[in-house]
Amino acid sequence: MLNRDTLYATIEAARLQAPGTGPTTPAMGLLVVRAQRLREFERLFGYVASERLQVAMADRLEHALRRVDSVVSIGECAFAVVLPQLHDRQHAALAASKVARLMREPFEVLGRSMRASITVGGATWPEDAASADELCQRADAACADAVHQRERHALSSRGGGEAVAHDALHDALLRNQLQVYLQPIHAVAGGQLLGFESLARWQSDDGWIPPSVFIAVAEQTGLIDELTRWSINATLRHCADALRAQPGLTCSINLSPRAVLEHGIVEQIGSSLRIWGVPPQALIVEITETAFVEDPETTASVLGELHATGVGIAIDDYGTGYSSLSYLRNFPVTELKIDRSFVAGMAGNPRCEQLVAAMIELAHRLGATAVAEGVEQREELEALQRLGCDRYQGYYTARPGPADDVLAAARPALEA
Length: 416
Ligand code: C2E
Ligand code: CA
Ligand code: CA
Hints:
This protein has 416 residues and is of the alpha/beta class. It folds into two domains: 4-155, Alpha-Beta Plaits (2-Layer Sandwich); 166-415, EAL domain (TIM Barrel). 48% of the residues lie in helices and 22% in strands. It is built from 17 helices and 17 strands. It has helices at residues 4-16, 38-45, 47-64, 89-104, 132-145, 161-174, 211-221, 224-245, 257-260, 265-276, 291-294, 296-308, 327-330, 340-345, 350-365, 378-387, 403-415, and strands at 28-35, 70-75, 78-83, 107-109, 112-114, 118-125, 153-155, 178-187, 193-204, 207-209, 250-254, 283-288, 312-318, 335-338, 369-372, 391-392, 401-402. It has an eight-stranded mixed β-barrel, surrounded by four helices. The longest helix has 22 residues, at 224-245. The chain is globular. Bound molecules: ligand C2E and calcium ion (2 copies). One calcium ion (CA) binds at residues 316-317, 337, 373. Ligand C2E binds at residues 183, 199-200, 210-212, 215, 231, 254-256, 286, 316-317, 340, 373-376, 393-395, 400.
C-alpha cells in the first residue's frame, strides 16, 4: 500500500480528535474509494487515461469533502478518505453515499467523457475496528462488497453499527421523522396527470439520509416490516381523498423484496385500503426484479394474491436486475417501469432507444403499461412519444416533493 505511514498517521490524528464518545458513537470513519476493473479500463483507453482518471478522482474527492477530511492515495485509482468528528454511523454512510454518487458521474479524460466503475466502502472506529490496520481492512472489504450494491457503496457490516442504525431508524419511525414525498406520473401522450409514486424521506437530526441508505438499514435490521406499514398507511392517508375523488388516478408504493415475503402482507395492504376507503385498483405496488431472486415461488404467489384483490403490480427498475424473464410467466404484471439508466442513455444512442422500444413492446404484449422513469429532458419525452410509451415521471416535469404540497399543486389538474 502506498503512503501507508501517511494514512496511519492521519487515522491516529483523527482518533485523537474524537469527542468524548460513548460506546455506541463512532468517533471517526474511513472510506476506501477504488476504481474496479482497472485493467479493463486501461486496455480500452490506455495507461495515460488511468493516470488522468487518478487525478480526476482525487480532484473530485477534494471538492466533495468537509475541510476536516483528508484524502490519501493508496494505489492506482484508489484512495482512502479519513473522516474525523463523525456524529454517528449514518454520518459515515452519508459520506459514502455522496462520494459514490459523485464518482458515478462521467469524468472528462483525454477529451472524452467516460464513466469508471468506482465503489466506496466505509468503516467506523471504534465499532468496526480496534486499530488503524483493522479499520483499513474493514473499509476495503466493504469497498469490495459494494460491487454488489446498486448504489456502489457499503459500510462494513461488522461491529455494533447495525444496532446503532436500527435504534436511529426505530426512533425516527416513532418520532415521525419520516415523510411521504410524491412524484407525479403523467401520460406520455397528452401529458395529463395519472398518478403519483410515493417516496420516503428521512430528515434526521444530522440532515437528510438518502432512502438508499435507510431502506438498506431497514432490510438488514428487520425494521422493514415497520417501515412498510408506515409507508402504506402514511401514503394512503395523504392520497385517499384525491384517489376517491378521481377514479383512474393511481398511487404507487415501493415494496422492498423482504417486505413481499413478510407474513400477512396481502391482508395488511387490504386492511389499510379499507381503513382509508381507497379502492384496490387505485394502488400499485412496485417491486424490483431482485425480489424474485431470494424466493421466486413465494414472491410470485404473494403478488398473484395481491393482484387478485385488484391491486396493480409494477416491476421497478426494469432491465437492471434479474435477467431471466421466467418470473413474468408466473404472475400477472400490470406495469413495467423502465429504469432511468435506459431513458438517460437514449439521447444519441440508437441501441439504447431500441432497448427502450423493446421494453415498451414487451410491456404491451403482456397487457401491461410501460412507464419511463427519470425523464429529465424534452428530447427524452419526445423519443418516448415516438416509441408509444404510456406514462412517465421525471425531473423534466416534476421532482418528488412533500405529499401535501404536491397534492395541493395537482388539485387544479385533478379538478379539470
Ligand atoms: P425508485 O423506486 O427507482 O424511485 C425513483 C427514484 O428516482 C427516486 O429516488 C426519485 O427521486 C428519483 N428520480 C425521479 N425522477 C428522476 C429524474 O428525472 N432524474 C433522476 N436522476 N432521478 C429521478 P429516491 O427518492 O432517492 O429513492 C431511491 C430509491 O429508494 C427508490 O428508487 C426506491 O427503491 C427506494 N425507496 C424510496 N422510498 C421507499 C419506500 O417508501 N419504501 C421502499 N421499500 N423503498 C423506497
Ligand atoms: Ca419505484
Ligand atoms: Ca425505479
